Amino acid sequence: MTLEGRTAIVTGGGRGIGKAIAKRLAGAGANVVIASRKKEVLDATANELSGLGGRVHAFPCHVGRADQLEALAAETERVFGPVDILVNNSATNIGQGPALQVTDEALVKTMEVNVLAAHRLIRRLVPGMIERQRGSVINIASIAGLRPQDGGLVYSFTKAGLLMMTRVWAVEFGRHNVRVNAICPGLIQTDFSAYFWQNEQYMAQLTASQPIPRVGQADEIGGMALYLASDDSSFVTGQAFVVDGGATTR
How far apart are CA 47 and CA 135, in angstroms? Predict the structure, then answer.
């Protein structure tokens, strides 16, 4: 699956799932811009991933702010040219807890990062993809968007919204050969999900019920993203690919 000559943006690309996706895309030959708030993390990741098939460029960006998203798009076009692959991976989960305790502020901030950032980047970058008649957008959702999560009203709501937006975008952009798909990870061993996989009781329940009785690894999401970014998935759009060790089968 070669991506030579293509340019990608991966938000939340400094660590975890985003880093694994950036590694896969660059390894296939794409030039990749990784974005997140922490410059030192981005620089370390860009340095670690240097020497792969494609170049990796770090750009600090708060995805919840429209002006910084515009700067990200402009910087990517300046350094590597038009964007062919967009991975909306950045996420936050600041509203975890009982539904009646969710504040307006938590809801708004989570929406800005988990949903509005993807909408803004798609609105900025997809017109160019349509003009070139080629593009792949990959939204990182969650199995929390597929089924209710106790104490996870805000996160589940935003991920469910992202999934429906993925389908609508796919319907509208498909005639222009621009594909939009989503990946729904289960529990993946990253810093973002440490609250769960470091909880012995939670892990005991998971290993007792999940068909593949272990935590997933970020690279297993990276492999799915590479498939969706490549021409191997040229007839695939509007889909939500569940990568969860079978958790949602129960």
Answer: 27
